[in-house]
Design goal:
0% strand
Length: 119
């Protein structure tokens, strides 16, 4: 039994549509992964940047006022506090965006390969 040419074309178009839907979903998941990595790098940059700015500020204060090492210590502590504040603000904004988009997935603990899942 041979199928008609129209049926064969219809079946091929359906297969092509299914393949396109699968590849679109895979690309979407990959793009989401890249966005998450970018956001994580932004938070890391905020943490490190705040400490380095505080370090530079403390060094300048020490150099101008001659209060070595207290300006440096105070600058690092101030920079660290500022970087924690900025990173938390960014994380809260990202969580609010994810919640608004309906992307709130249940949290799953990280388990390394070969590690017992039952403890």
């Amino acid at each position: 039994m041979t199928e008609s040419r129209e049926e064969a074309i219809k079946r091929l178009q359906q297969s092509a549509s299914e393949l396109e839907a699968r590849t679109t979903a895979e690309k979407s998941a990959e793009l989401t992964g890249h966005q998450v990595a970018g956001q994580a790098y932004k938070i890391i940059a905020e943490l490190l940047g705040g400490v380095f700015v505080g370090l530079a500020f403390g060094f300048i204060v020490d150099w101008v006022l001659g209060t070595r090492p207290w300006g440096l210590i105070g600058g690092v502590l101030l920079g660290f506090a500022l970087s924690i504040y900025m990173a938390r603000r960014t994380a809260n904004r990202l969580m609010a965006q994810a919640k608004a988009q309906g992307n709130s997935a249940p949290a799953e603990p990280y388990v390394e390969a070969g590690e017992d899942e039952e403890r």
